[in-house]
Amino acid sequence: MKRTLAVAATLIAGTATLTACTEEQAYCVDLAGYAANAVNVDPQNPADYTKILEDAKKVQASAPADVKDDWGVVVAFAEKAKAAGTDRVELARLSQQTSSVMTAYKTISTHAKDSCKVDLPQLS
Known about the structure:
With about 120 residues, the chain is an all-alpha fold.
């Protein structure tokens, strides 16, 4: 009985480790795809954020807790930019909000490099 419990505990611990690794790997793969598509995004042009919205949503869904809220900031901004469409007044209003997006993106970029060895393009 003790041996069965020990084997079961080992299997559960091993499965938890594999699941965590798989989740982080999924995030890193999503992040690499995002990085490839974010190359030509201008942070001063909110309309550019719509180019990366779907990728950002995918990365947000797989993001670890450390950066999930930061991805939320990026996604929310991109959704606002998409909703603004070609409305110049709304786009100008959004361009004044880029500092919070840039702060979140810097946190994401640092985490990406440290955890996934992925270099995100600078949005400056």
